[in-house]
Amino acid sequence: MATLSSIQVIDLEVKIANTVLLSDVSCEFQAGKIYAILGQNGAGKSTLLQCLSHEIPSSKGSILWNNRSLSEFSYSKLAKQRAVLPQSNELAFSFTVEALVQLGEEVVQRSHKEASNTIDAVLNTCDLIPLRHRDYLTLSGGEQKRAQLARVLAQIWPSSPVKEGGGIFSDKWLLLDEWTAGLDIKHQQLLARYFKQWAAQGLGIIMVLHDVGFAAQLADRCLMLKDGKVFAEGEVNQVLTQSILTEALEMQVQVSDDAQTGRPMVYPRLSF
Description:
- The chain is an alpha/beta fold.
- It has a single domain, classed as 3-Layer(aba) Sandwich (Rossmann fold).
- The chain has nine helices and twelve strands.
- It has helices spanning 45-52, 75-79, 97-105, 112-125, 141-156, 185-200, 212-218, 236-239, 242-249, and strands spanning 6-16, 19-30, 34-38, 60-65, 68-69, 82-85, 173-177, 204-208, 221-226, 229-235, 253-257, 264-268.
- The strands form three sheets. Strands 6-7-8-3-9-10 form a six-stranded mixed beta sheet, sandwiched between helices.
- A hairpin with a 2-residue loop joins strand 4 and strand 5 (68-69).
- The mean pLDDT is 92.
């Protein structure tokens, strides 16, 4: 069976002007799993994701994709291996939803039939078929988020059956920054189920989240950042403990085990 794709982060530091955003960050991501990057505002979550996607350079350290330096990859090659949904997406011009999704698909340069099938598939996945001819600028915030997700999915969507010795999404990565923001619960749950299916088919998924309870249900592993450094990393049950959440996120919380799944159930608590 083929070796799964991996990303290694080694002693990463990001410094802008005199401000250190990340310091001595080392971690590893394996395809076929869902990773949640957690932390307070300013902890360095989005910065780390931008380094992984090669959007911003590091000051020190290195990132290895399958044991090759990320700096060796051209942006055109990376675009076919990883898709990135940033925290915000601004469009200055009018596009239909379908035309927006086509921008992501064009990165791959499939045949006309495969391109059409891909666009239909991602529109259906993101529950956008009824909105395919709508002007993106007239959509609600949640609908726009789903349209942007469909665009990036088209970039890495498989166009052929399962590879020999690998999954449908072998060697592909999906990087998501606060993808749940603006989405209603129905679509959060719908897409989360797809993420679990795709991870089982070889896709590596790394997501920045603020919703710790949602991360507890969805992620395979968690990376907790605090003040630009790794505070905790490991399986969900190892990281999402009451003591770690209290210290790293400075939140009042109760954690118990779900009797059916064995996963932690996280309940933020208010005190007055």
